[in-house]
Amino acid sequence: MGRWSRLLAPLFVDFAGVRDGERVLDVGCGTGAVSFAAAAIPGVNAVGIDRSRAFVAAARRADGTRVRFCVGDAAALPMPDDDFDRAVSMLVLNFVPDAAAASAEMIRVTRPNGVVAAAVWDYREGMQMLRAFWDAAVALDPGAAARDEGQMPLCARGELPQLWRSLSLHDVQAAGLTVTSAFASFADYWQPFLAGQGPAGAYVCGLSEDARRRLEARLRERLSATGSGFTLTARAWAVRGVVT
Fold this sequence. Notes:
globular; 9 helices; alpha/beta; Rossmann fold; SAM-dependent_MTases_sf; single chain; SAM-dependent methyltransferase
């Protein structure tokens, strides 16, 4: 999903309203897509935090000079109260055990009148690459439906704004952010699944060789891409609110 997060990051940073000279915390920073997009704005002091040491190490290797990266838990941020102008989190809250607790921590470390923003993929309806994958997988194996990311929390329209309002943030605003990615060939689409990352990748790697070939063939037919390129879109739901 790396290609998608890199496309989404600048749109999300713009939606979050990051401005010159602000201190910005990127919670669940992964390999740094949002942190680097924020740091590209003049004068922004960006800090990225993730519980994965491997992701933090990769982010530091990518560019450890513009952004300070650290290891930590979203539900227990090792930062003082009111430390940042904005706290943002992209493609994380639907994966954490307690999204409300993680969001409350983002609010705690953000100054009064600062902004807290988040985004998650619209796994239910807005991810063409995954919708094609799971539709093909379920057609061959009905049990695959239990693995579909579309069942994750916070992925439906309106769920993130509801969470933000429950946390007493005000001036809550929501938007759908859509990105498009070009695939040079079917292999360009298929190969990332073979790495085993995420629910879809884990499903592929758990299949027998024969079942994997059947799924690959069905996806080729579905996407009409036996050698030529094609494009797919992905939508994320985003929300922002102001700290009281």
